[in-house]
Amino acid sequence: MSELEERMSKSLSVFEENLSEVRAGRANPAILNKITIEYYGVATPINQVAGISVPEARTIVIQPWDASALKEIEKAILASDIGLNPNNDGKVIRLNFPELTEERRKELVKDIRKMAEEARVSVRSIRRDGMEDVKAKQKNGDITEDDKAREEENIQKLTDKYIANIDKALENKENEIMSI
C-alpha cells in the first residue's frame, strides 16, 4: 500500500512541478529550472551560477556570480522554449513578462487541464496495478475475500485522495492564470 501511495505522490509532484513551469504572466523563477548553461565544460542549471530574484511582479533578474557566464545564460534563455527575450545590461539579465491576452489565458488553461488529465490517468493506472496485485494475492490464497475487498476499498480511497489533490492544484493554477 505504501508503494502505491509513493507512486501516486510522485505523479502528483510531477504534475505540480509542470504547473509551476507554466508561464502565467507573472514572474516565476521556476520557469528557469530546466535551463542549463555550459559552465567550464559542465552543463549547469542557471540557479547554480547566478542569483535569481523577482523585484517586480512581471520581471525576473538574473545576476551571475561570474560575469563571464552572462553571455552563456543569455544564449541558453534564447535557445529555450520559454518565449522570453532577455535584456542584458552587462551586469544582469532581465526577463520581462508581457501581459497575457484573454485568448492566451484560455489556451494556457486548456494546456494545464490536459496536464491534469495525464496526471489523473497516471494515478488511475497505479490504482489498476494495485487492484491487479490484490486480485493475484486472493487468487493465490494469500488473502481472503474480505481482505481483498478491504484492500480494494483502501486503494480506491487513496486514488480518490490523489485525484482530489490534482483537481485542487489545477483549480488553483486556473484561478492564478485567469485572475492576472
In spatial order, strands of the major sheet run 3-4-6-5
- Main sheet summary: 4 strands, antiparallel
Structural class: alpha+beta
Mean pLDDT: 86
Order of helices and strands: HEEEEHEEHH
Number of helices: 4
Shape type:
elongated
First-to-last CA distance: 41 Å
Gyration radius from CA atoms, angstroms: 22 Å
Strand content: 15-25%
Residues in helix, %: 55-70%
Unreliable spans: none
Number of strands: 6
Short description:
This protein is α+β, with helices and mostly antiparallel strands and 180 residues long.
Task: Please explain how this structure is put together.
- The longest helix has 39 residues, at 102-140.
- Strands 3-4-6-5 form a four-stranded antiparallel beta sheet, covered by helices on one side.
- The protein is α+β, with helices and mostly antiparallel strands.
- It is built from four helices and six strands.
- It has helices at residues 2-20, 70-79, 102-140, 145-179; strands at residues 36-39, 42-45, 50-56, 59-64, 86-88, 93-96.
- β1 and β2 form a beta hairpin.
- Helix content is 57%, strand content 16%.
- It is elongated, with a radius of gyration of 22 Å.
